[in-house]
Amino acid sequence: MDINRTTPDNTHIEQYDNLKPLLVRPITPKEEKPWNELMGKHHYLGFRKLTVKSLKYVALLNDQWVALIGWGTAAFKSGHREKWIGWS
After folding, report:
1. Residue 78: what are its φ and ψ, rounded to 5°?
2. Among 12, 37, 39, 88, which one has the highest count of C-beta atoms within 10 angstroms of its own C-beta?
3. 76 three-state secondary structure
4. Contact criterion met (CB below 8 Å) for 73 and 54
5. Residue 58: is it exposed, middle or buried by C-beta count within 10 angstroms (0-12/13-18/19+)?
6. pLDDT greater at residue 2 or residue 77
7. Which residues of 4-25 are buried (b: 16+ CB within 10 A; e: fewer)?
8. Going by C-beta distance under 8 Å and a sequence separation of 6 or more, which residues neighbour residue 3?
9. Does the pLDDT at position 25 exceed 70?
10. 37-53 pLDDT, tens digit each
11. Does pTM surpass 0.70?
């Protein structure tokens, strides 16, 4: 560990030589099932599926999944939203 490195505002940066850089990449087709299962198990709202067009990413640190990221297209119809807005 090298604790002599600093940022421009003199904040110390700790460097751990045994850590590889964080890698964020799209999942592969064979990773979709484990990605969905982990989202269902760990997301605070649960998870069923992303809407229509979607992007699913995984963040890896030392070749281990440490975060999941996903985006889905916006819903054209959402009963709860439309009721809250007052739309019929």
Report:
1. -145, 105
2. 39
3. coil
4. yes
5. buried
6. 77
7. eeeeeeeeeeeeeeeeeeeeee
8. 12, 13, 14, 15
9. yes
10. 999 999 888 887 777 78
11. no
